[in-house]
Structures are given as structure tokens and as C-alpha cells.
Amino acid sequence: MNILCRSRILVSSVCRKSSLIDQSAVPRCTSLIFKARCHRLAVNLSSCQQRWRYGACLKCPFESKRCYTDRGEGRLTERPEKLEDETEEVEDNRRFSEVFTLDVLISLLRQENAVDLCVIKVPDHIQYADYFIVVSGVSPRHLRAMALYAIKVFKFMRNHGEPHVKIEGKDAEDWMCVDFGKMVVHFMLPETREVYELEKLWTLRTYDEQLKKIPAETLPEDFIFDASEFTK
Amino acid sequence: MKVFHGFQKLSKFWRQITDLIFYLSSVSIATAAIQKMTRVRVVDNSSLGNTPYHRPPRVIHVYTKNGIGKVGDKVLLAIKGQKKKALIVGHKMPGDRMTPRFDSNNVVLIEDNGNPTGTRIKVPIPSSLRQMEGNYSKVLAIANTFV
């Protein structure tokens, strides 16, 4: 990871140097100022991220410690990578980050006035996805619009061989689902969300209330274990 | 020479008889996973799937080109005197290599719009459902363990 970051910095500095050689001193000053600004911007961006992360945690209807700390842990490990991405973003001026990361998704959901955004970092031993996101919407039309916009942005940004993404549950009004490889987003109405309680399931895996309510499987009284059945 | 020729004809006759017998009988244990009239086990926590009834839920239609249902196919069940759609999440028949084989034909009840009827699934669900074409994310979202 470090090697990659260093190479990125090298490449960007080389590009800047080559541009400097071609042009005059004025752009040189502007590029230096730009560099200073971009560092500051990167810091600002990270602090903004922190702020909305806290905000998103508070907004999550199910406030579990586990939910927050999982996300916190996830965040801490990814911070140095994200900073590098951010600096590159700003340096390239018009071209934005080509990777459809979690931050991009969350920011676009907030832009769409998503209600009760909840991001859960899925632990590694569950090999399903990295992030599980549940979003509520005001109406079925709102959910559909959010899902379509997310896919639109994803299509704009995907360049590196990721397969196309489709909306699952298009004919269901109250629950739509989009699976971007590392992240899974569920768009539900508040009523549906209360029925299924996905956040509870994905934060407390086996200690979930609804799972505990399922009665344990009991063998019928006349059950006889016949070993010959298994050797057929 | 004549005796040998006669013997060949006789063996050919017996071969034809045995072929006919195999054609008429159903030696189809390995050819079908879930088809019409199979009894299935509902594995979610829906009330329809868990209330006892004097008849086990049976498949009455499989929504595939051939009438064979594998993991990820939709079927129509007859449960408690009503028709309900369901999704197959495991069968007794061995499938592809490195896919789980279950000891029972498991099924998850589904509404017509694709929403699962139950809210939790305790039984392990194959994680290969994610790569398959179809709307399985909702079922995977309510699953507890993956195999």
C-alpha cells in the first residue's frame, strides 16, 4: 500500500514537473499554492467526513455500540488510503475519483435526502460484503429515484471491469436492493424497515431477538435414526 | 457355428428386454433435484411455513424451462391449502463441485413481488446465491449463516 501511494505521489509530481518545464513561472507559483491548498482541503475533507460519520451514527435508528465501533474500526484502517485518494482527487481538478467508494455512495444518498441512513461494517468472517447500508425513503418514488441515481453515478464511475449492477426488487414498492460488489444497499420504506429490522440482524448476528424467538428444532417423538438411509 | 449364432441372437434379445425394463421404470434419483410433488421444508420464520398442518408443503410447479428446480429457482408450493411462491435454497441432490449439499430440500417463502414472507432464516444459506442471476439479495439479507 505504501509503495502504491509513494508511486502515485511520484507520478503526480513528475507530471507537475513536466508541466512546469513547458510553461512559465506564473503557473509554477499557482501550482505550489494549489499544492498547499489541496493539503488543507484534504484535511478539511477528512474532518467533514468525521462529522457526517458521527451524524450518520446518530441518525441510525438502532443505536448500538457495536454498530458505531465497527464503523469506527473500519474507518481507522482506511483513513490513510482515503487521504491519498482525496489528494489525488483535488490535484486532478476536474476529474473526480474514479472509484465508486463508500464515501461517494453515502454523499450521494445524503444529497438525495435519504432518511435514516445506516452503514454497518460487516465483519470479515461473513463473506458477504464489506458494507451493509440500509436507507429509508419518504415514498416508493423517492426510493426508486435514489436507487436509480446511485446506479447512474456508479455507471459513470465504473471503469475497471466491475460487472453491471441491477436493482433487485423493481416491482416491489417498499423494498429495493442494489448490490455493488463490496457494498449492498437496501432502500426500504420505514414500515418495511420496522418489520424486517435488518440493522439488528447485521449488528448482533446470532444474538438477534427475532432469531431467538424462532423455536428450536425438535425431533418428532416417533423419530428413528436409520443409518442405512445415509449410505444409499 | 449355428449354436454360436443362436446364442448371439438370444443375448441380444435379453439386452432388449432389460433396456425396455429400464425405460419403463423410474430410476431417476440423480436426474432431478426438486420437481412437482416433492415435499419441501420451509426454513424461514414465517407463520405460514411453521404452523403444523396434516400435509407437508409440496411443490406444484417449477418456474424453469425444464421442470427441475435447483438452488435459486422459484417454485409454487401448496401450503395449508393455499398456493405460495418460494425460492429453493438447498436440495438433497449433489450439485456443482464446491457447492453445499443439504440433507433436506430447503425453501424460503416469497411474495409475488419478491419480498420474503418470513423475517429471519436460521438455516445456512449457500453464499453462491450472490453470484447467480436473479433477485436474491433480499433473501441473503435476512439470512443468519452462510455456507
TrEMBL record, chain A:
Organism domain of life: Eukaryota
Keywords on record: Mitochondrion
Gene Ontology biological process terms in this record: negative regulation of ribosome biogenesis; negative regulation of translation
Record-level Gene Ontology MF annotations: ribosomal large subunit binding
Location of the protein in the cell: Mitochondrion
One cellular-component annotation, GO: mitochondrion
Keyword Hydrolase annotated: no
UniProt KW Iron-sulfur keyword: no
Pfam family, one: RsfS
Family stated for the protein in its record: Belongs to the Iojap/RsfS family.
Entry-linked HAMAP family: Iojap_RsfS
Purpose of the protein: Required for normal mitochondrial ribosome function and mitochondrial translation. May play a role in ribosome biogenesis by preventing premature association of the 28S and 39S ribosomal subunits. Interacts with mitochondrial ribosomal protein uL14m (MRPL14), probably blocking formation of intersubunit bridge B8, preventing association of the 28S and 39S ribosomal subunits. Addition to isolated mitochondrial ribosomal subunits partially inhibits translation, probably by interfering with the association of the 28S and 39S ribosomal subunits and the formation of functional ribosomes.
The protein's name: Mitochondrial assembly of ribosomal large subunit protein 1
Organism ancestry: Eukaryota, Metazoa, Chordata, Craniata, Vertebrata
Gene name as annotated: MALSU1
UniProtKB/TrEMBL annotation, chain B:
Cited InterPro entries: Ribosomal_uL14, Ribosomal_uL14_sf
UniProt-listed GO biological process terms: translation
Record localization: Mitochondrion
SMART domains named in the record: Ribosomal_L14
Primary residence: mitochondrion
Molecular function in Gene Ontology: structural constituent of ribosome
Protein's UniProt name: Large ribosomal subunit protein uL14m
